[in-house]
Amino acid sequence: MTLLNDAQKADLKSKLKKLQDDYAKSIPEKLTEISTSWEQYVNRQDDASIHHLINCTHKLAGTAKTYGFAEIGTLASNAEDELIALHEQTPSDREISASSQAIERLVKYR
């Protein structure tokens, strides 16, 4: 088993920091996409819109936590849960207020 020397450790830390910084810069775009997609869903209330929202929040929940942004990851995970619950309701029974609040908390993270 080969251990990293100090120079290799420093190089690895630098690369990881750059990945984290690049990810941080992408968060506002991800939140804008979620916000826009939510508005589309509210207007259309179609399956394609909610599936897209669930996918966006799911990806954000996982990647945010991976890159060290636990708070936004948790907010995205909560929004995903609310969207799934909303999607599982019959169209006539859909109450979007809980999902709306979860999405609002997430996009306000900016």
UniProtKB/TrEMBL annotation:
The keyword Nucleotidyltransferase does not apply. The modification Phosphohistidine is found at residue 58. One of its GO terms (molecular function) is protein kinase activity. InterPro entries: HPT_dom_sf, Sig_transdc_His_kin_Hpt_dom. Keywords: Phosphoprotein, Two-component regulatory system. It comes from Thalassospira alkalitolerans. Pfam families: Hpt (PF01627). One of its GO terms (biological process) is phosphorelay signal transduction system. The lineage of its organism: Bacteria, Pseudomonadati, Pseudomonadota, Alphaproteobacteria, Rhodospirillales. Residues 16-110 form the HPt domain. The keyword Phosphoprotein applies. This is HPt domain-containing protein. SUPFAM superfamilies: Histidine-containing phosphotransfer domain, HPT domain.
